Amino acid sequence: MKALPYSRIVHCLVALATALGLAAPAQAVRLKEIAAVQGVRSNQLSGYGLVVGLDGTGDRSTQMPFTAQAMSNYLQQAGISLPPGTTAPQLKNVATVVITAQLPAFAQPGQMIDVAVSSIGNAKSLKGGTLIATPLRGADGEIYALAQGNVVVGGAGASAGGSKVQINHLSAGRIPDGAQVERAVPTPLHDSDTITLGLNASDFQAARKVALAINARSGPDTAVALDGRTVQVRAPQDPGARVNFIAELEELQLPDSTPAAKVVINARTGSIVLNQAVTLGPCAIAHGNLSITISTTPVISQPSPLSRGVTVVAQKSDIAIQQDGGKVMQVPASPQLADVVRALNTLGATPQDLLAILQAIKAAGALNAELEVI
Fold this sequence. Notes:
4-stranded antiparallel β-sheet; 3 domains; alpha+beta; 20% helix; 6-stranded antiparallel beta barrel; 6 helices; Gyrase A, domain 2
């Protein structure tokens, strides 16, 4: 895919900034969009199991001995054991997999959750397979769910005569409602006379606004900001009243504060994202382009007549290096995002060049934003 010219990327950023109203007055947001009640969270579950019933696309037992070992252990639990000295079976319809799932907050025994199934051997496909009963454990090693069911694979493939066609991924799939919860995780929602709100991002101004908004609604000293990310709120002791109180808090309208200025750079793809708080101080930038061109020309060498020689084809490479003269450009102070984008557009640099330019501007103290490289 051909990369977009830098000018088009910048123009898109300006249009997006205008469409989103980044220079417009701040809009109100709901409390549930910037904070959550601490302790109300999901938990990661995982397990190791076997998918059976594959159409010859399972693990190759000679290369994956743990597949045969896992199947032997399963058969022993079913009361079946191979005679001593028996050669390990070659299982083509079985694949070893890792099962992962998210145990939601307040999930109770008997409820169903989705699971993801991923091959860890050399199985060609999990399509048409069935996961046999597999316990799913939490970080503490306890079993919280039991997974079983038919694997749904969102892909297809076929091969014959050395040719192969494949659409999407065949080594992973999902089982909707594939696990039944066996144990609930205690949630400390009613353990004390207060609840704690955790902000999605550390911001003292946002924490202060949350506390002020809650106190304005429920009375003074109801909420207090403990730090830039935590707000402690006094809540009713009765479970039903506490749930209603939290539900009303989540819908509480808050003035949207301007976030901390940040520029995020993806060094692998050259993507650059700026938020609306980014500003530039006046600075001067020298930017030059270095281009290296390598061209290859075939050279044919013919032998002399009657020399019994052979024609030889060689390659001749020419390397040219060109460096354009750098220009010193003065960038004015830019107080808004659209002005910043317009100032950067005047440089005429590609996104890859802009990575180094932004880091140099930051080092010079002219970029009023946090620079994060991912």
